[in-house]
């Protein structure tokens, strides 16, 4: 790859959680960027198909080797071997089927109601009706995380962490965020963190405090999982119940206890964080684009007579503008903005080169991938890429071929057989939370959190105040938006 432009120390920037390397990838006019001597980023929609599809001659990068939390028990995210992943995926995906989500909806709605109550809790104002007063300042990055953590803990463990109503377990969010950052560093330098290293332990030297907190968290979750398995109730229908009962349709195998624990850990650590980022991003952009917020309010209030009528089903599914607002937020500020590398296997990999009209062939052993933030801001697929424009997803507003082109370059949940298995659950959480909160009342900006200036260099990649700033740590670290809420007249449900 001698003619492929390289970025300076990208692994260092990635491990620091900086945005500069991501901006460099996204603004490069060349579709190929040499991320490291053995890593290549391809910023095209053809690469998504050629690298991430079922037929692609690749497997997950060796950078995933240090990621399994439990010895000998990888999950659907950390499994490198395609056969092992396929077995796990066939079992785990049963927990996110349509019937499974219908069973899970009461648990989700219970948490969404609690979030709405917390956000719309009016501040007492002398001489005013409290119901017409604005709430106190709400940092949505925190509240959305409490929501998603309560939902996934209820569904994955059968027991909510109750972060929306109590601070007791909120420390877990910092522990998870810290361990995700540690994992991202390990992906860049796997030889430092590879399991079984006897002469040097990077974890011991770099993250001694984090390891203690993680051990505390793992001990607590293991106890919850063991208790849930012991007291399994056939009448309770949640993701855990499906994981415990589901069998591989090809082999008839169940998941072992360690595998159930590993998948539950994944749902809590990754599922809670990524969905919270998407919801927070949606509120950032809606609060700063009043015409979009007004259009969404009108769409929802003309469709649903009461807030309690906003439930899973064909009516919610038909709310195209709601989905467009959510998708555009994830395009602008992806919940996982970086590159998920794949290692090319024996025989090599061919990728169509749109610039030359030829096919490029890459040798075995090379890591290749597409930067999610980068391709989401590629003007070839998204004209005016740094503007929040939900209508770009609507065939009623844009030509069908333009919408199809945008969809071909949209990958907030990754793509192909290794895409997030919990995508249906994430969309349901996002739709119910955003729809109900927007339906109930008004919101206004009450702080600059989430705007430009959140990153390593304020003038390199984080200069746009209208863009919700996320810090790449495999998932996204974020702050804000800080908003205030007020119930609209007669919008009590």
UniProtKB/TrEMBL annotation:
Record flagged with keyword Metal-binding: yes
Pfam families: p450
Keywords per UniProt: Heme, Iron, Metal-binding, Monooxygenase, Oxidoreductase
Cofactor: heme
InterPro entries named among the record's database cross-references: Cyt_P450, Cyt_P450_CS, Cyt_P450_E_grp-I, Cyt_P450_sf, Cytochrome_P450_monoxygenase
Annotated positions binding heme: 420
Gene3D superfamilies the UniProt entry points to: Cytochrome P450
MF annotations from Gene Ontology: heme binding; iron ion binding; monooxygenase activity; oxidoreductase activity, acting on paired donors, with incorporation or reduction of molecular oxygen
Record carries keyword Iron: yes
PANTHER family in alphabetical order: CYTOCHROME P450, CYTOCHROME P450 MONOOXYGENASE ATNE-RELATED
Family: Belongs to the cytochrome P450 family.
Record protein name field: Cytochrome P450
Species per Swiss-Prot/TrEMBL record: Lepraria neglecta
